[in-house]
Amino acid sequence: MIPNASDALIWLESHPHCLKGIGRGIERETLRIRPDGFLATTTHPRSFGSPLTHQWITTDFAEALLEFITPVDDNIDHLLVFLRDIHRYVSSQLGEELMWPMSMPCKVHPDQPIQLAQYGSSSIGQMKTHYRQGLKNRYGALIQMIAGVHYNFSLPFSFWKERTGIYNSQDGKEAISAGYLQIIRNYYRFGWVIPYLFGASPAICSSFMNGRESTLPFEHSEHGMLSLPYATSLRLSDLGYVNPSDHNLNITFNNLSEYIASLQIAIQTPSEKFIAMGVQDDQGNCLQLNTNILQIEDELYIPIRPKRMTLSGESQLDALQRRGVEYIEVRSLDINPFSPIGISSEQICFLDMFLIWCAIADSPTIDSIELACTHKNWNLIITEGRKFGQTINMEDGQTKYPVSDIGHHLLHDLNRIAKTLDSLSEKPRYQNVCQRLKASFNNPNLTYSARLLHTLKSHGLERTGLALAAKYRTQLSQEELEIVDKNQFTNEARRSKIRQKQIELRDQHRRTNLYNVK
Fold it and tell me: What InterPro entries would the database entry show (predicted)?
């Protein structure tokens, strides 16, 4: 059912200090909305600085889609306070506008234009906007307005040193990369527990469909809401972020060179569908960066990705190839509507334990058949995960196991990891999380999606979302900043604008020199 991790857990319990210094970072997206619930039509506030170069406040797909980014932190409380400070500052600067507290978009008028994120006149700025134009033309703008939380996670070098016997990170590049890919393979097999426990998009506004067809058996409410009775995360369904359905990308995670090579093929292989679309329209306006299956590697929509910090002018794949995997990016978290900042300490603690388990539990190579089986399991949990007695297929794709049984087996292992982590702080923080979440596998009605759907059915999605948005705006804007003061936000906004201008002047100088040479 799940791998026997007994020996690995014994090893971990005898090496607790190798877990000191876990690196964590959060990227939280949120839509700016008007008080009536429709998308904001204003541009990214200038008081926030340049979204191209700001360290903490930027935009994602559109001008109205904010993204908050924390620095890497090894302290959960400090990390969450930093994220909260960003929310506090932004809440105080938005005027009448609100931050939508859910993943799926709010009301969208069918004729309302969605302005793509703008990053200035530099080459990199224009590329980022043109890439988004390609996403809009390939998949539709509304899908790109879905918001989520990305959790960046890295194990300390001491863990890899003790686990693999390496002496430094450069010499251990292959071993560390293999370790992170092991995490990813186990995440594909068992990561559906994340939407099961924390999925928070069991319903959507009917305006999101906007004429789109779906085979999902939606229930229609009098509030203009569509829902599935046992759904956990429609954000992760075929309505949201999925791999291109008409291309067999065949991307697996058995070794780094294989992953890089398969992704490079997708980036370099033309698509008939996108060739027909063209790169420019008759007026010379950009339609997409290129006609390949993926414009760039960021277009690969998967629940977890291997990552590496890039140097100036370096692509993500180049960085991975040269220096190996540095951390992983978990991309399957919905916005937590029960938290003013979209994520909670409980979720971070669970992710820590689960990802550590993924790192030490046996993780054999995964072939295309098993990968297809994992996709079916994810889809089942996403659309029907809370059905009592729900089962999923494991291993051979034929044997069925109850979700509750797998959850309890997993939590048994995670509780041992919790004790190891708690021994470093002498507080039962992680064990308390295990105890609370255990009840969710006994009773699916205790999961985030079930609790949210109960409220949505009573009050409607729009009313619930607006009430939470107003509550959180008032709460956050009245709180004092704790880590980043107002002057630091002001200085970072000023610095980011200067940096953008420097990049644009440098590009202009290069273009002038090229013209003079010709």
Answer: Gln_synth/guanido_kin_cat_dom, Glu_cys_ligase, Glut_cys_ligase
- Quick count: other Cβ atoms within 10 Å of Cβ 83? 26
- pLDDT tens sequence across 389-409: 999 988 666 789 999 999 999
Q: CA-based angle 253:256:257, to the nearest 5?
A: 115
What does the pLDDT read at residue 245?
45
* Separation CA 240–CA 243 (nearest Å): 10
Q: In this predicted model, which residue has the larger pLDDT, 213 or 3?
A: 3
Domain ranges of the chain: 18-394+447-517
CB burial of residue 363 (10 Å; 0-12, 13-18, 19+): buried
DSSP letter string, 275-321: HHH-SB-TT--B--S-SBS-SSGGG---SEEEE-PPPTT--HHHHHH
Measure the CA–CA gap between 421 and 428, rounded to whole angstroms.
9
CA distance 176 to 159: 10
| Rounded Cα distance, 328 and 308, in Å | 8
pTM, whole model, 2 decimals?
0.96
Picking from 49, 50, 45, the residue whose alpha carbon sits closest to that of residue 64 is 45
Q: How confident is the model at residue 5 (pLDDT cuts 50, 70, 90)?
A: very high
Q: Which residues pair with 149 in a beta bridge?
A: 28, 333
For residues 383 and 232, give the distance between their C-alpha atoms in angstroms, rounded to a whole number: 6
Taking residues 61-76, report their average pLDDT.
98
Contact between 106 and 100 under an 8 Å Cβ cutoff? The reply is: yes
H/E element, 67: strand 65-69
| CB of 458 closer than 8 Å to CB of 446 | no
Alpha-carbon distance values, 295 to 112, 177, 287 (Å):
26, 25, 11
Q: Which amino acid is at 132?
A: R
Using CA atoms of 244, 399, 380, 417 in order, give the dihedral in degrees to the nearest 10: -100
pLDDT of residue 241: 67
Question: Is the CB of residue 383 less than 8 Å from the CB of residue 377?
Answer: no
Q: What is the CATH number of domain 18-394+447-517?
A: 3.30.590.20
Identify the residue with better confidence: 369 or 31.
31
Region 189-202: what's the mean pLDDT?
A: 98
Separation CA 320–CA 328 (nearest Å): 12
